[in-house]
């Protein structure tokens, strides 16, 4: 009998996407922590699974045709798990198209832009020497605000991002959007986004997924060694 899915993970928004999905889909899994502040993502054994040295990644012993498979990139993992279980992808091809649009909106837009906002608003000014760059801070703060405006208008049309059903698109977007305060955003003019954030946060699977290895999370803004590993130059 195949073992549980192995989740290579650290408690960050990208990691939470997959822990939330596994909880929501009621799939058995074991956590293999990848301490990105300590450089675990550069270990050869992890690079065999995730050649871009980014977590999350998974190994599923019960992959296609019953053979083991490893998957890296959070969007690809979400699509794989949704196809595997037949859950959270909608019921029609139109549903799946809507889900894919918003999933790719997250992986190509919100995630990178919010990540850069976090970097230049919080981490760069705390580095040695400090890199307090007003243009970069304004650039990414403003782009995240634009993206949240897009999301708020979409959520005015339906309960969830891709329609009237909770999907892997919501699982991908929520971990990043839940950090709006750290991105120096406001919800005062985004009532639909505020409503959706609260609705999703109440789901048991989201709560459980968000709590995985929560005690391992550290403040990179105060950790010089982690900054060197995460933000230093590598080939």
TrEMBL record:
Keywords: Transferase
Highest rank taxon of the organism: Bacteria
Entries under Gene3D superfamilies matching the protein: 1.20.1050.10, Glutaredoxin
InterPro entries, sorted: Glutathione-S-Trfase_C-like (IPR010987), Glutathione-S-Trfase_C_sf (IPR036282), Glutathione_S-Trfase (IPR040079), Glutathione_S-Trfase_N (IPR004045), GST_C (IPR004046), Thioredoxin-like_sf (IPR036249)
PANTHER family documented for this protein: DISULFIDE-BOND OXIDOREDUCTASE YFCG, GLUTATHIONE S-TRANSFERASE-RELATED
The family this protein is said to belong to: Belongs to the GST superfamily.
Annotated protein name in UniProt: Glutathione S-transferase
């Amino acid at each position: 009998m195949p073992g549980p899915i192995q989740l290579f993970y650290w408690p960050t928004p990208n990691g939470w996407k997959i822990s939330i999905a596994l909880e929501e889909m009621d799939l058995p899994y074991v956590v293999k922590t990848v301490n990105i502040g300590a450089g675990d993502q550069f270990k050869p054994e992890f690079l065999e699974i995730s050649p871009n040295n980014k977590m999350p990644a998974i190994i599923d012993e019960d992959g296609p045709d019953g053979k083991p498979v490893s998957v890296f990139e959070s969007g690809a993992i979400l699509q794989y798990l949704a196809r595997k279980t037949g859950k959270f992808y909608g019921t029609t091809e139109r549903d799946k198209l809507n889900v894919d649009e918003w999933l790719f909106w997250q992986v190509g837009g919100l995630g990178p832009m919010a990540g850069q906002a976090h970097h230049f608003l919080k981490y760069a000014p705390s580095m040695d020497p400090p890199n307090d760059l007003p243009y970069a801070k304004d650039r990414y703060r403003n782009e995240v605000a634009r993206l949240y405006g897009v999301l708020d208008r979409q959520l005015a049309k339906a309960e969830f991002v891709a329609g009237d059903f909770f999907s892997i698109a919501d699982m991908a977007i929520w971990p990043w959007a839940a950090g709006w305060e750290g991105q120096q955003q406001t919800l005062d003019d985004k009532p639909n986004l505020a409503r959706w954030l609260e609705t999703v946060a109440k789901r048991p699977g989201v709560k459980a997924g968000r709590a995985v290895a929560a005690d391992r999370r550290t403040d990179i803004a105060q950790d010089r060694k982690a900054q060197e590993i995460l933000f230093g130059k590598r080939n």
